Amino acid sequence: MLIKILSAPKSCTTLFTIAVTAAKRFGIRATGIDIDPQRIAEANDNARRNGVSHLVQFRQDDLFKANFSEASVVTLYLLPDLNVKLRPRLLAELKPGTRIVSHQFDMGTWPPERKLELNGRTIYLWTVPPRQGS
Ligand SMILES: C[S@@+](CC[C@H](N)C(=O)[O-])C[C@H]1O[C@@H](n2cnc3c(N)ncnc32)[C@H](O)[C@@H]1O
For 2-29, how does the pLDDT look when each residue is reduced to its tens digit (9 = 90+)? Predict the structure, then answer.
């Protein structure tokens, strides 16, 4: 769905905008996290204006402390070093099979399953592998 929206002619500028658009078009539920309160205020305002506050929530939090273990898909638009720093938590805490989508930045030495170029954006895809011994 992220890819479908990113490839739409009317481009979206942020992952938070994409979450609002996907909620409006497809009824998805999403939680967005950013440490910057201004981004959270803007995103929640956008959700309210589009009538999807019951579907998407944006909260100010530090990703390195937040609990995201129940997510079925994690989408990231961070920075290269933050992706790499977050990687051990993603692998340890997300359920095997959870999909991870990153806008623009890879995960260092963890090769993506797919890398797509869409409208000048690079999208990377991974799936959390089974835990060792399971
Ligand atoms: C490249 S910007 C992307 C912004 C926005 N997420 C978007 O989709 O357009 C990177 C974002 O990462 C956020 N960020 C940096 N460190 C963070 C952390 N520890 N926890 C949560 N967000 C963080 C910054 O506040 C910034 O908004």
Answer: 655 555 555 545 788 888 988 999 999 9
Question: Tens digit of pLDDT for each residue in 42-74?
Answer: 999 999 999 999 999 999 999 999 999 999 999
Residues 107/87, Cβ–Cβ less than 8 Å: yes
Provide the residue range defining the domain that includes 87: 68-134
**Ligand 1 atom nearest residue 78's Cα:** 10
* Closest-lying ligand 1 atom to the alpha carbon of residue 39: 27
Residue 83 phi, psi (nearest 5): -60, -45
Domain edge (last residue) among 45, 61, 77: 61
- What lies within 8 Å, CB to CB, of 75 at 6+ separation is 2, 15, 18, 19, 100, 101, 102, 103
Residue pair 7/33 in contact by the 8 Å Cβ criterion: no
Q: Answer yes or no: is the C-beta of 28 below 6 A from any ligand 1 atom.
A: no
Domain count, the chain: 2
Beta strands 56-60; 30-34: pairing state: parallel
**Extended strands (E) in 20-128:** 30-34, 56-60, 73-76, 99-103, 114-118, 121-127
Tokens 């995960």 -> residue: 107
